[in-house]
Design brief:
single chain; alpha+beta; seven-stranded mixed beta sheet; about 30% helix
């Protein structure tokens, strides 16, 4: 299903941390996202891109650098807006940011959804191939898998 015309993707605004936290809460409760204190979300709001329908946040994704890569984190879509391509659109925004800013790859850590990321062109990174700068992204005990989308042609071992 196509993304609805009323949907707007934009950088998160200061003061939207509570809405990001509310949107994320069901995913945290189900173990799909890491719990982040409101103070952390407030501090990191500038890293988020959000999808809005009217005045309501219906999706969000954090986008932050990690060495030569850009990491997508805290990707979630409101239950009543899932299946409309919003997550795919937000990852596309992150990909555009990564390409425009010269990052070599876009990374995503997930406990679930590896197949979904695969459909977007991501490849699973075997643990033996994870760079040190990527290893710090893993949270102990979470058993997450790392997925990578190359943004530049393969050079110098990337």
């Amino acid at each position: 299903m196509a993304t609805p015309d009323v949907l707007v993707a934009r950088p998160a605004r200061p003061g939207e941390a509570e809405q990001i936290a509310s949107l994320s809460a069901p995913f945290v409760e189900n173990g799909l996202l890491i719990a982040r204190p409101l103070a952390e979300l407030t501090e990191r709001t500038k890293e988020f891109v959000v999808a809005c329908a009217g005045g309501r946040l219906v999706g969000c994704a954090g986008v932050a650098p990690s060495g030569e890569s850009l990491v997508v984190y805290n990707l979630c879509i409101a239950a009543d807006w899932q299946g409309r391509g919003i997550g795919r659109h937000l990852v596309g925004v992150a990909e555009t940011i990564g390409r425009e800013q010269g990052y070599s790859s876009l990374l995503a850590l997930t406990r679930y959804g590896g197949e979904w990321f695969g459909k977007l062109g991501f490849s699973k990174v075997p643990a033996s191939e994870a760079r040190d700068e990527w290893r710090v992204l893993f949270r102990p005990g979470r058993e997450s898998s790392l997925y990578r989308l190359r943004l530049t042609s393969e050079q110098s071992g990337d």
